[in-house]
């Protein structure tokens, strides 16, 4: 039996044991992990140094090396993250619906763990701790498949988790790491329907697209955000400018940052240059259509490709949109269903935009940067779903649960 | 462009229009369909007669021919079904969650249509009406891909729907029928991620497995039910017998019928023969393990295959299970996560069974036959989900919806 199937089987068996474990026992196990993590810092940092050396030898970029890097401070941050998860309410056991039938049957819909969660991710070894903690908190077993660039770190982290779980009520088989990081094991996970209930990719666009395109296991798609801001004719200049600068610049590398501006021609004529100069002064490269380049000559010509592009950096595409309907059509054509905003003083246009734009989060007069589990008050960062089934938008712990109908009778039969 | 992609594109465009259409307009369109259906009975029955002739020529079984057959009475039943859907509450627009942030942002999570639903199904032309009505009620566009054996009927039904929609606010492109019923078009639907938000198979086990195994579009898996009843040591004889006979015999061909009995050895010794004789007298073929055959010689020997088998007819597998834990393990190994029951007077064993059995519906002292959208009070029959994401168990209209965060601000930016 292959490593993936073997570990899948163990995780499945552990997931059945987990359904009998209480919130207190799960929290105690998480606290053990936090303690063991702090106690094992030296060993983990040594393992991480191996990954860093290998990465330097391979000539990985500074940005990627920084994602792989662990430090004492980062390890303390990871332990802090586990304790934040301990403090969250346990969603498992919540009664979602109660149906009392005339024949006396009591039907309750109750929140239960999903079972076995697969996580496939790149570089960052902190995802190992983060994902395992979230899974255990919600009573799920987890199969982790990290990248080769963080292999030693992930191995040391999962060994540490197993030591901690051995002192807890949670079976250590609940956390499985796939050690073989070849493409083959990823492909096996995509089709591990026998043991895996859901697969969550965390990483770049290519990883996510591969998982979506090749996986027969249900996927929760997270990530890509080609987010737009439409500035309507009646938009207040200062408000529009502040929202655009915030959404583009507060943290340009993340998925809820703005990547494209649509501007009503009248507003563009009146205020467009001021706005574009402000962006330009903050070193934002502007890719514009003809009307934009007509008022701001430093703008480069936008190609069809630009309307599709999530720059994740200091660049933005800008285009005139002749009214809210045209903006909606453009966004529904080019957007990635993540976060979309309108700035307007016209309530009717705002209502139309909020209703007709197809995205997980739609904003009126606010920055797209608010799309985030912590900002929404969920206290955890599982990811931001851009699909429509199961979970959409920032995901809290309930995204890692399913439900079950529990029916209690006194011998009722169907007439 | 292929038929599938072309119709996918039209359905997607229609789905955007549907977001602006009110409950009243959707209900009026459904009423138009009900009227047009009754008015077009003659034409539809003629088309159906063509399918019946072709089916007879091909030598299809009487059971399948009966599924294809439409009659005036069945058409009246279909119109009645549409009117029942009109009477249901529209879930779209429901506010699922309200978050007020300290900075004044108002975040609402609102129920919205999924977008474009794909339905791939066998024989029964009534699914065409049923699926289209449920989709339109929830503001979704739908792509229908029926089987070749009901091709003329489906074509006539969708033509009728288009005539009705032309007199309504709902765009007629919201309902698309794939006319080419070759395997190729099914395969294209499996990978139509650009236009299709979800794919729902309705039909036999092979169809469902093919869709699950080949589709990259998210699937809602429905159907297969290898349902067990575990009779515990303390089970009341009369109650156990009534539940078993009801679950096996009230309608043996459906997914929530019982297919396998697990019996505590002490109960088996005391009451087993009585129960098995009752089943035998109702012409149920019994496949038993050694202990079952020891008390009832007419039982045939059960093979490993029997524990996996959903007979969907007058047969049942029977086995001794030495206590609730053994029963739970057997069910979690062989069950299809549909409906599972325990009969016992022991509350502790009942609680353990309800918690640890992994299935959409778990029963204590009641027949598995209650797992049904109408029985649960949802008023519609979309199917019974046996998967864990998005929807699990009998699905009501909300299973055809997603949600969206709508955020209203006054210029808030992220600090």
From TrEMBL, chains A, B:
GO BP of this protein: L-proline biosynthetic process
The organism's place on the tree of life at top rank: Bacteria
Name of the gene encoding the protein in the UniProt record: proA
InterPro entries xrefs: Ald_DH/histidinol_DH, Ald_DH_C, Ald_DH_N, Aldehyde_DH_dom, G-glutamylP_reductase_CS, Glu-5-SA_DH, GPR_dom
GO molecular function, a single term: glutamate-5-semialdehyde dehydrogenase activity
Domain Aldehyde dehydrogenase residue range list: 4-274
The protein's annotated pathway: Amino-acid biosynthesis; L-proline biosynthesis; L-glutamate 5-semialdehyde from L-glutamate: step 2/2
Family of this protein: Belongs to the gamma-glutamyl phosphate reductase family.
The protein's name in its UniProt record: Gamma-glutamyl phosphate reductase
Keywords of the record: Amino-acid biosynthesis, Cytoplasm, NADP, Oxidoreductase, Proline biosynthesis
Subcellular location: Cytoplasm
Entry function: Catalyzes the NADPH-dependent reduction of L-glutamate 5-phosphate into L-glutamate 5-semialdehyde and phosphate. The product spontaneously undergoes cyclization to form 1-pyrroline-5-carboxylate.
Chemical reaction(s) catalysed: L-glutamate 5-semialdehyde + phosphate + NADP(+) = L-glutamyl 5-phosphate + NADPH + H(+)
Species per Swiss-Prot/TrEMBL record: Compostibacillus humi
EC number: 1.2.1.41
Gene Ontology CC annotations of this record: cytoplasm
Coarse class of the protein's main subcellular location: cytoplasm
